[in-house]
Amino acid sequence: MPESKRHPARRPQQRPPKPGHRNPAGSSSPSSRRPAEPDASPARRWLLRRSAGPLALLHRLPSAAVAVTLVVLLIAGLAVPWRGAGILLLVIAAFLGWLLALSWPIVPMAGRLARLVAVLALLVVGVLRLLGRF
Fold first, then answer.
1. Does some domain include residue 71?
2. Which of 69, 70, 114, 128 could form a disulfide with 134 if both were Cys (CB 3.0 to 4.6 A apart)?
3. Rounded CA separation 119/6 (Å)
4. Does an H or E element contain 51, and which?
5. φ/ψ (deg, to 5) at 26
6. Gap between the Cα atoms of 91 and 127, Å rounded
7. How many angstroms separate the CA atoms of 89 and 74, rounded?
8. Count of domains forming the chain
9. Which pLDDT tens digit goes with each residue over 28-62?
10. Does residue 25 form part of some domain?
11. Which of these, 70, 67, 61, lies nearest to 88 by C-alpha position?
12. DSSP helix/strand/coil, 33
């Protein structure tokens, strides 16, 4: 039997894209690449540039590592009886605030408000812990 009959070469079917469909992986052609935030302010572009490295590092970590770390910091920040535990809560607030700033343009208003309330609550509780009032 000829080799081509035993192992037929299969080519992926070339289909035209559906109208309104956008490839989530993006395109590899340079002509179709667009900057992520063409109308972003200089401060936002600075934040995006500075965040690229830490985000790449977070992406390489196991998926549960960040969540487990945040939960451990939260429990320690609330349960440890010394005043300095408020610093742990402030670290969580800073991390979540950074993620909030990065995702601000693409999150709906309800999501923005919920995330902002969570960050502000952590800030307030962290400062109260530092002052020894909580």
1. no
2. 128
3. 62
4. helix 42-60
5. 85, 180
6. 11
7. 6
8. 1
9. 444 444 445 567 789 889 999 999 999 999 999 99
10. no
11. 70
12. coil
Phi, psi angle pair for 11, to nearest 5°: -110, 145
In this prediction, residue 32 carries a pLDDT of 43
Percentage above 70 pLDDT, the chain: 72
**Quick one: CA dihedral 30, 33, 36, 42, positive or negative?**
positive
Axis crossing angle, helix 109-131 with helix 86-103, rounded to the nearest 10: 160
Residue 8 identity (one-letter amino acid): P
Side chain identity at residue 129, one-letter code? R
Res 33: pLDDT: 41
Lookup: tokens for 113 = 């408000």
The answer to whether position 91 is within a domain reads yes
86 SS3 class:
helix
Which residue has tokens 């572009």?
A: 45
CA torsion sign, 31 to 36 to 38 to 43? negative
Tokens of 32: 């179709």
Tell me the backbone φ, ψ of residue 85, rounded to 5 degrees: -65, -20
Domain that holds residue 129: 83-134
| pLDDT over threshold 60, residue 7 | no
Residue 108 lies in a domain: yes
